[in-house]
Design brief:
4-stranded mixed sheet, about 180 residues, Peroxidase, domain 1
């Protein structure tokens, strides 16, 4: 996901606040709730409408987030006031990445030509944990275009063990040997 710089800045500020108050998990839950509600098409339409007054928008979020802790509710108010409610999912995602980094957790996406069995999934998870020296939360995807093998992405690291990649490398080597 391409993330706006503003979303990252909000997430960093929230992270520092949450860490200082020892409330990382509480903020995680609140941000997920905020992102879910503000991503709703109907809510988004109302909050971005020029026909709805600012005070009506604030009243709406007060009702939608009734019972939420004051600090997360202040974030929602700020996002409404700045016209940045659409950033909520990006803020939640950026914040969660910071929390996971603090906890030694990395998210990995593994793409294979066919679905992995539970045993294969466990094996891939263990191997990625060995490589990263972190706890790995694995997400799998299927893409028949890679032919076989797998492609793993952990943060900025890409591990391409696909048959398609190996065939492309072999083709380059063979073409190079003719020259």
């Amino acid at each position: 996901m391409i993330r706006e710089i503003a979303a990252k800045r909000y997430a960093e500020g929230i992270f520092e606040l949450a860490r200082s108050q020892n409330k990382l998990d509480e903020w995680s839950a609140s941000l997920q709730t905020i992102a879910g509600v503000l991503s709703d098409a109907q809510v988004m339409g109302l909050l971005q409408s020029s026909r709805m007054s600012h005070s009506d928008k604030l009243s709406l979020v007060e009702r939608l987030f009734q019972g939420m802790d004051e600090q997360p509710l202040n974030l929602v108010r700020l996002l409404v006031s700045k016209g940045r409610t659409r950033l909520a999912p990006q803020i939640a995602e950026a914040y969660q990445e910071m929390v996971d980094e603090t906890k030694g957790i990395v998210h990995a996406t593994v793409t294979t030509a066919v679905p992995l069995s539970d045993e294969e999934r466990d094996m891939v998870t263990r191997k990625l944990q060995e490589l990263s020296d972190k706890e790995v939360i694995l997400q799998t995807e299927v893409d028949e275009n890679i032919i076989g093998g797998l492609v793993a992405r952990m943060g900025d690291t890409l591990i391409d063990g696909s048959t398609r990649s190996k065939l492309a490398t072999l083709k380059q080597q063979l073409e190079g040997s003719r020259a």
